[in-house]
Structures are given as C-alpha cells and as structure tokens.
Amino acid sequence: MNKSLPKSDGSSFFLCEDVREEVNNKLSIIGVFQNDNIVLQKEIVIPALMAVLFARGGEGSCETRVSLTDPKGQTVIESPKRTVVLEKDAIYLAAVRVLAPELIVGRYTINFFFDDVPIQRTFEVKKA
Question: Cα separation of 52 and 26, whole Å?
C-alpha cells in the first residue's frame, strides 16, 4: 500500500456547535458558523464549539492529533495521538471540541497533525 498524508489544499475547515456520528456512516453537523469569526454576545450562549477538518489526499496508516493554541500563544487543547488508516479517495474527519465559555477575544490556531505534519487553520473570536 502507498503511503501519503492529507494536503492542506483541498481539505475543508469549518466551525460548528456539534458533529454527531449517525448510523450508515452519516454525520449530523449542527450549527455551522458562516465564516471563521465567532462573535461572543452576552445574551447568546455557545456551550461548545467544534473545529472540524475534512482532510483529503491521504492513504495508509498514520498518527493523528489536534492542538489548539489561544491568542496568548498557550496550547489549551492537545488531543492524544491516535493511529488511523487513511483510505485513498476518502475523506478523513478530524475534529476538536472547544469549551466556548472559556474563549477569549483574539485569533486561535488549530493544528491538525498527520504524522507530525500539520494542516493549520485559524479562527477569530470577537465581542459584539
């Protein structure tokens, strides 16, 4: 089997409130944000936030993990490493749950690692 890692180009990133795995290999994606900006408002509560990457282009076994860095440069989430098998012409879902009440204003960086090679994305948190 050939081995290759997903590429940043062609991989899709979005923010939503939740992703649930359903029967028949389906996903329910709830509360998708229209862009990479989260606006915090006093009267609207966002209990959790999912940062999702649909990774394309990989094949073979690799180790994955996700890290989230806050605007101060502190790593606030680091998922444990997992070994996955990527299938040719298939999409791999990588996601991390962020506790939204703990968000601070500024730019966050998310690294989705495949064998320690990152696909990096950012999002901005603003106040209304």
Answer: 15
Opening angle at CA 107, ends 5 and 100, nearest 5: 90
pTM over 0.85, yes/no: yes
Are 69 and 76 contacting, i.e. CB atoms less than 8 angstroms apart? yes
As a whole number of angstroms, the distance between CA 65 and CA 80 comes to: 6
SS3 state of residue 25: helix
**Among all chains, which residue has been given the structure tokens 């081995």?**
3
Buried b / exposed e across 61-84, counting CB within 10 Å, b at 16+? ebebbbbbbbeeeeeebebeeeee
Residues 59-79: tens digit of each pLDDT: 999 999 999 999 999 998 999
Report the sign of the C-alpha dihedral through residues 56, 57, 59, 64, in that order: negative
Tell which residue, 24, 31, 25, has the closest CA to residue 50.
31
